Amino acid sequence: MLDSYCQTQNYKAALLLFAEMKRSGVVPDQLILATVLSACRHIRHLRTGKAIHSYMLVSHILINAHLSSALINLYASCAKMDMAEKLYNGMLRKDLVSSTAMVSGYAKNRKVEVARSIFDGMPEKDVVSWSAMISGYAENNQPSEALSLFSHMQEHGVRPDEVTVLSAISACANLGSLDKAIWIHSFTENNGLTKILCICNALIDMFAKCGGITRALSIFNEMPHKNVITWTSMIAAFAMHGDGKSALVLFEQMKKEDVEPNKVTFLNLLYACSHAGLVHEGRSLFRSMVQEYRIEPDIEHYGCMVDLLGRAKLLQEAVDLIESMHLGPNVAIWGSLLAACWMHDDLKLGAFTAKKVLELDPNHDGASVLLSNIYAKSGSWNDAEEVRGVMKLHGISKETGSSWMELNEFAAGGEKHSESDKILLKLDGKLR
């Protein structure tokens, strides 16, 4: 029964059944304990896993290779690499499953070099171990290493599976190389993987990030079956490339196909409207999201709307929206409005907004610099000197020669940066 629950991924039911079994006085054997530990791993239930481990030690149950692997998998999945390493080092023979768990665990904890040393020391490797290492590189922003290992995997005669290919596609997307994207797309076609929905969705996202919007659209159009992720990925692709109108047209097609949008769909639509200056459409979408689809906006949705209204010089409407938020506005929200105030020369509102940013983050370099500039521009020299005094105290220096046009030119490049991001990129030296 436990095994049946685990096979259907009903892991919580498996743990409840195990608890009932213990209460009834039935003594679990090694196979049952390994199964329950596997359930704990899948739902990251460390407390129960540790309790089972303690039970095995107190009851003097022989912890064989199978149980050791299950425990290592549990601790590695829950980022308890000290416990996993202790068990792993105590194994007389380090089997494939345990070694792969260690590779995956270290990679997930950003210790990619340690993961690679274990991987290189494995006498045998299967598709799961190769995938774990490739995924580790991809998730730790080392796309070139991920793709290089993907090639080595094939040279060693190991056929990549769906998980491996998804990691390779993710690496291509992060690398931003269209040539590599075309190469991995050819691989999926030659190996009959383009019939898998999640792979096609990932390919659309990859080509969008690599500048191949036409190829992304071609994959989208050829897909016989599409889910909400497919439609959202293509909408995001248009939004990423500044084609707001195409994103809206696609959304209308999506509704005709009776595919219900989710929060991510609306976030990308609002982003598309913001960067295409489609104020009326953005308002309508935001209203539709709340009233028609009953989706509660996240802080990111409000951020897109504030950015949209701010770009269009509808500053008071942006303020009204912020004041109506059911969430407390964060630094990014006020920062977006601050950027719009500076852009449209609304010094009074700009000073108010800069103070809001500094209330939330007193050491916010970009807001301090802009507040000083706003006071100076409006002739409030005493206030400007006071802000500069605080800046000097905190080690913040005013960067000269920064105009709004320079900020826009500096931040140009098609990435998802709000106006506040652009200011911070220049004045703060990094994106917040």
From TrEMBL:
Taxonomic superkingdom: Eukaryota
Ranges: PPR repeats: 1-28, 95-125, 126-160, 227-261
PROSITE patterns, sorted: PPR
Assigned keywords, A-Z: Repeat, Transit peptide
Family note: Belongs to the PPR family. PCMP-H subfamily.
Protein name (database record): Pentatricopeptide repeat-containing protein
Organism: Urochloa decumbens
